User: Which sequence fits this backbone?
């Protein structure tokens, strides 16, 4: 079974999230949205859209979005078969956080790595 197929997103905390978001928007041109992040649509060499998006988010330092991890970051990895991967990870003795979540954005699950970092696994909806 193929496991991780790419990076779906990068999320990190900031002491002053609004100010840091504004800095990225002003100086690097990141299109920060009201939800605190941006979605980078994938394109080919000619700039034409292809299926896929990478999310980027700055959370306030006090956010519990990454709990139970105490790390100030979380990486979201794209996967092809999330239920199958979760089953395999559990069989391998990994610390998988329950429950798996499903929405219009796809399927999400979380696992803790050996150093206590929360890892987000994402199976996008078909065609994305």
Assistant:
């Amino acid at each position: 079974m193929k496991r991780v197929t790419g990076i779906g997103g990068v999320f990190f905390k900031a002491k002053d999230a609004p100010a840091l978001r504004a800095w990225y928007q002003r100086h690097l041109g990141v299109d920060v949205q009201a939800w605190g992040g941006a979605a980078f649509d994938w394109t080919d060499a000619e700039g034409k859209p292809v299926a896929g998006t990478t999310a980027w988010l700055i959370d306030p330092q006090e956010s519990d979005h990454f709990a139970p991890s105490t790390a100030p970051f979380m990486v979201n990895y794209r996967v092809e078969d999330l239920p199958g991967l979760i089953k395999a990870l559990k069989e391998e003795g990994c610390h998988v956080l329950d429950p798996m979540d499903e929405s219009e954005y796809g399927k999400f699950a979380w696992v803790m790595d050996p150093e206590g970092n929360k890892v987000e696994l994402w199976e996008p909806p078909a065609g994305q």
In short: The mean pLDDT is 94. The helical segments are 17-28, 82-91. The beta strands are 4-14, 37-43, 49-60, 73-79, 95-103, 106-112, 118-123. The first strand starts at residue 4 and ends at 14.
